[in-house]
Fold:
Amino acid sequence: MKQKHNWEYWEKPANLQDLKTIWQFIVILTIIVFLIVVVVLVSIVSPAKAVESPQVQEKAVYSVPDPCGLIDVVCDDEVATSEVNDSKLIHNATVYAYNSEIGQTDSTPFITASGHNLSKGDRVVANNCLAFGTVVVIQGVEYQVQDRMNVRYTKCGENDTWVFDIWFLSYTEAANFGKKTLDVKILL
Structure:
């Protein structure tokens, strides 16, 4: 015996209000997914552009003092016009050591905040108060500021404890240096 089909179910027109609600939901969901994709792409692309511009070494020097009160403000995209042969001594600075490991840096451990590519023989120090390219002398060795530290180390006043972080090629060298309290000479 043949089965009877209930064709009545298929022949009924759909409720138009239900279809409109479903389409509105799909449109709203599509817009939300699109916005999330845009935000993710912007957050991925923006840091990459910052790394691509390593040419920040020579800049013009102006007479407006920086927040630390030690060096002149330097503007981007201009060549330096003069050099100052003076120095300032920071007493009892905290000096740490680090090396190029993702756990101690960001996801690009051999590229400093200034865009400098680290290599064997570089004498680089991280500091949040001094401009990139500033030369400091620690224990008789000249280092160039090419990197930054966590923002909690941005204390630059006369009565603050300044913090420096010297880059070493190997973990062993950095661990052997450890943490020290030293006088640091800033060549202005």
